[in-house]
Amino acid sequence: MIGDAILFYLDDDLLSLVGRPSAHNWVQYHAETGDYDVSIARRALAVNPTGRKLYRFQSGRPTGTGC
Q1: Gap between the Cα atoms of 65 and 67, Å rounded
Q2: Looking at residues 40-52, what average pLDDT do you find?
Q3: What pTM was computed for the model?
Q4: Which of 63, 54, 60 is closest to 17 using CA atoms?
Q5: In this structure, are residues 41 and 24 in contact, taking their beta carbons and an 8 Å threshold?
Q6: How many CB atoms lie within 10 A of CB 31?
Q7: DSSP the chain
């Protein structure tokens, strides 16, 4: 299966991958089987999640950062 995802930079050494599970599976497989110094933490998918640790807000206009 082909999938895509968005990789968000949150902080030094901290990224968040958002997208279809197939992309997460591919990244996790390579993180575990490759020679990489990384750790993976996955959040269970839920229809109505509670206790979120992270919220994302998006603006799609050139002056969006001025909001």
Answers
A1: 6
A2: 70
A3: 0.63
A4: 54
A5: no
A6: 13
A7: ----EEEEEEETTEEEEEE-HHHHHHHHHHHHHSS-------PPP-SS--S-S-------STTGGG-
